[in-house]
């Protein structure tokens, strides 16, 4: 039944025990500040310097790229990166969206590399889950390519509290196993961006491969989809 619905999944050749899981906000913040604190200070200093040059900056993205992304604009940026059609109003600032995606990808390529394997979480829509499932059924040997910036949470509570049906009627939860070596940033390590999601942001392009058949979590009322993250970042260290 599972294979018919989800396709072939190799559940036996992946060691989940070598991945760190975070359990408290304090643990997440301490870890994030230790690894990304210095980079975040340099970023905030650069942003403050740019604010004095506001008249020469074309788009607000250039003033504070990560704050820009963490607001409403993440939807526009990821639509653009995934080659999806922008709504009419979004098309009006297409040049700004293009600028945002370029700057963020460049910026994230200079963040510290992940020093250890970790587990992160992400709520996704029914449409996205269907894309993952159909891809695996059609191409079981080829991981799914995620072209957008990948916003995740170090804590499972960070992405399940307060969710609405906009994220899918079943509250589909990706449990993602991220290998060390990947470029990323813990958003809460940046002054002024102390978001409750405990967000860990990674640059595109990343690949997702299923490592277990989905299962239901009665406690959290989520269907859990476990995926291995694959990135070219890990091959050049």
Automatic annotation (TrEMBL):
SUPFAM superfamilies: ADP-ribosylation (SSF56399). GO terms for cellular component: extracellular region. Residues 29-202 form the ADP ribosyltransferase domain. PROSITE patterns: TR_MART (PS51996). This is ADP ribosyltransferase domain-containing protein. It comes from Candidatus Enterococcus mansonii.
